[in-house]
Write a structure and sequence with these properties.
Strand order of the largest sheet: 1-4-5-8-7-6
Largest sheet: 6 strands, antiparallel, barrel
Distance between the termini: 60 Å
Strand content: 25-35%
Structural class: mainly beta
Number of helices: 1
Order of helices and strands: HEEEEEEEE
Radius of gyration: 18 Å
Shape: globular
Length: 148
């Protein structure tokens, strides 16, 4: 008896979306260079055209990483690479590199400090023939007034 994989995935997808995609995320094209926000003492990246806004989730992918600089007088770069993953339905568009991802709303009981935080897509969204959600690799935007 052959397994009808398409039917199985069609049944699994709503279950996974219902358990994982509890928040609202926005994917937008970059709208220009970072702008200093004196209220948060950080730089915000202005959003351009909204490409997607709807169900999603953002989760940490690993611990932050620091890279050594090529300049002998500066042993470390100013920012770390903070790897995160965004999860969206397969119906969401594939995010291009540098797409700005913002958490718009967090489910009840979720981490409300994520609302308004921004990430940049490191690469186009991942895809696969057996996927049930779209995954996009992210780097958190974390420039401060004293940073680059």
């Amino acid at each position: 008896m052959a397994v009808d994989l398409a039917r199985i995935l069609a049944n699994v997808t709503p279950l996974v979306e219902g358990l994982l995609l509890l928040d609202t995320v926005r994917f937008a094209a970059p709208g220009g260079p970072p702008v200093f926000n004196p209220d948060t003492n950080s730089y915000d990246v202005p959003e351009g055209v909204t490409l997607y806004e709807g169900p999603g989730a953002v989760q940490s992918g690993s611990l932050p990483e620091s890279s050594s600089a090529v300049v002998a007088t500066q042993p470390w770069v100013n920012e770390t690479t903070s790897k995160y993953k965004a999860f969206t339905p397969l119906t969401a568009p594939i995010a291009a590199r540098d797409t700005i991802v913002t958490v718009v709303q967090v489910h009840a009981g979720g981490d409300q400090t994520l609302v308004g935080r921004q990430w940049r897509a490191m690469d186009p969204s991942q895809g696969g023939t057996l996927g049930v959600v779209r995954i996009t690799s992210l780097d958190q935007l974390q420039q401060s007034a004293g940073g680059a």
